[in-house]
Amino acid sequence: MRLATGLSAVLIALATTGSAYASSCTEQIATIERRLDSAGAERVTGKEPPGGPTSSGSDKALAQPPGGKPTDPSTTASVSGIKEARELIAKAKTQDKAGDVKGCEDTMTKAKEQAGALP
């Protein structure tokens, strides 16, 4: 009986810990990192991301980026904007690990603005 109680406590602790790491900010970080490691970001920066460009693997993803330009020119991606976004993501990861969800989300908002609309 004691073994079952102890095992239950361990499983509950693991389930609780796992959900703490899967915050909405963690998901935002992963999403923006995929964008910054995409073929579109490579076209902006001229550099292939470490490990090669990624793909979402989604059956809803476009085979090619849409043509045209963003309606708001301030959302155009730039090399410096992508670099700043990567630095902000590093900061957001630290905030997320520290449990600062609000700070992490605020930092991710800035990171998205800096990344701009990638092709």
UniProtKB/TrEMBL annotation:
Q: Where is the signal peptide?
A: 1-22
Q: State where composition is biased (Basic and acidic residues).
A: 83-105
Record key words, sorted: Signal
Q: What is the organism field in this record?
A: Methylobacterium iners
**Domain of life here?**
Bacteria
The UniProt annotation puts the region (Disordered) at 36-105
The name this protein carries in UniProt is Uncharacterized protein
